[in-house]
Each structure stands twice: as structure tokens, then as C-alpha cells.
Amino acid sequence: MRTPHIARLRFRPTQPADLTECLALSPECLGLDDGLRRALPGLWQRILGLPSIITTVMEDLAMPTGQRIQGWGYSFALADEWVRQEQLDDRPSAFVIRRIYAGILDGSFKLMDDAELGHANAQGRYNYIHFYSQRRKDLNDPYVQSVFNIANEAFRTAASGYNVRAMYFETSAQDAPAIVAAGFHRRLYADESSLEHLSEEARPAFLSMTREEVRASLPGTSVRHVFDHHPPLFRFSYSQRRLLWLALFDDSDAHLTERLEISVHGLKKLWRGIYERIEDRMPEFFGDTGGSDEGKRGPEKRRQVLAYVRQRPEELRPWSGAD
């Protein structure tokens, strides 16, 4: 008798070693020409880890090496000017993600830095666009449904905590029903009629949600959850926030030092800075685990901090220029 496949699904931040497997999931609906498709590996090696890009993989640890990544999602932060230029709040032209890729390559699309993101966030002007694709597509398949479930969890974790004005989503027409179920509204492209000859897998679909629309809806969907926001209390630095984000996925110190490109001493210094910042703003935070003996109290402090930021994702996001 054949042993049934028991999935071991999880999500985590995308790593450089994942890119070959991830890019193989890039679907026809991106509308990439050969030149742009060839440029993507180098482009992603360059932009992975930048503050204006969040990306996660949906991974099945029960699958063989090289076949574990079942889904790949990523988000680009968008400046207001670019949103207006592309008419994202009205009816944009199709293949928005393709134009972002092309714009990064030719310099016409500006990747916002941490300070710019912090100002947009504090002013309630944060916009971003998501893309998601996965290996298997049949929504009637229980395994595919499980992957979409973990993708929704990844979306809530990766996208929460921002003071969002609007979020956009581009995917295939085939995958659009799952995105609608997550709470996005389907929109039309300005050139919708020109896409009618394409198959469901090759035809892009555009969806969005705004703060005003969310306020008129009840909690329940993934999108509604993501729009929930509170100003951060601790205002951690970029390096501190990046450490906290990676540490949420139970990475070892060895892996954290590799991802952050710092020494063990540098890692300890970052953790110490996080603890000091918390104790300065909230002296009672650590209770009996406070004090200077990091050798004994450090692991418990780390556990408390990570438990807190899981519940308060705004602490992982940039914020500047407002009280």
C-alpha cells in the first residue's frame, strides 16, 4: 500500500538559495518577455532583503529537496506618485508587476529606503502591491487548499503592522478566486478586453482594497486583519527590526549572523540594544527577568520580546516623522 503524503507546511522569509526554485514558479500571467525573464535571477539577488520588499515562501518539508517550495509571495512598497502615475486606484493597464520589474532594471521605479517607508507609514500613506503564485493550482485539491491556507497565514504575518492606505494584488485569473476569498476586491484593467484571448493561467487579474473600504467591513478576512494598525511603542532601528523579523522564524544564532552578515558579538549587541530600548520605554516589561546578567536572562528576554512582537507587528515596521 502506498503511504499517503503527510504535508509539513510552513512559511518563512525567502532566502537567496530559494530563488531558483521560486523563479520557476513565475507564471505566464506576469507577461515577461525573454529578456526580462533572463534578468530576474540577477535582479532578485540584488533586491532580496531590501526594506521595501517583503517576500516569503510556502514550504513543504515532507517533499524532496528542490521540490519543497509550494508557493512564493512578495510585496513591493509603492510611493504615492507611482500609484497615481499607474492609476492603481482607478483602472491601471495590465501587467503591473512586469512594469515594476522593468522599472527597477532601468531605474524608473524607485525602491523606497527605510526612512521613506517610515515617513509614509507614520503619515498613513503606506501602499504596496502583492504577487503570489504556487506550484499546484486546482482549488478542489485539499493539498492545494492547505497551501493557500498557509499562504494566508504568511500574508497576515508579513503584511500586518503597517499604516496602510491601500494595497493591491496582481495574480493570474486562475488564482484570483482565492485572493477574493482573502478579502480583496476584483478590479478591471483599462485594457481588459485585450486580455480575453489569454488562458486563465496566462491572464493577469488585478485586485485591491483601501482603508475606506475596510472601515466599512467587519473583521474576518485576511485583508481586514492586515489593515488593523497601532503606532509602534519602541521604534526599533532598521537593524533591530530586521533581526526581530528573522528571529520570529526560530532561526539559530548561526543562521541569524549569516543572514544579517554580522559577528556573534554584533548579534549580541543588537539584542542588548533591543532590551535596553524596551526597558527605557517600558521598565516593567521584563519583570523578574530584568537585570544585566544576559547569560542567564538573555534567552528568557528574547522569548518575551518575540512573543510581544508576534502580537504587535507594528514594532517590526518603520515609523518616523510623527509622534
What does this 3D model show about the protein?
With 323 residues, the chain is α+β, with helices and mostly antiparallel strands. The chain folds into 2 domains: 9-226, Aminopeptidase; 238-316, no CATH class. The chain has helices at residues 19-23, 34-47, 80-85, 96-106, 114-122, 142-159, 176-181, 211-215, 222-226, 238-247, 253-260, 264-281, 294-311; strands at residues 9-13, 53-60, 69-78, 126-134, 164-172, 185-187, 204-210. It has a 7-stranded mixed β-sheet with strand order 1-2-3-4-5-7-6. Strand 2 and strand 3 (69-78) form a beta hairpin. Helix 2 packs across helix 4. The chain is globular.
Structure in a nutshell:
The protein has 323 residues and is an alpha+beta fold.
Main attributes of the structure:
323 residues, 13 helices, 7 strands, alpha+beta, 7-stranded mixed sheet, Aminopeptidase, 2 domains
Biggest sheet details: 7 strands, mixed
Name the beta content range: 15-25%
Assembly annotation: single chain
- First-last Cα distance: 64 Å
Per CATH, the superfamily of the largest domain is Gcn5-related N-acetyltransferase (GNAT)
Low-confidence stretches: none
Decide which structural class fits the backbone.
alpha+beta
Helical amount: 40-55%
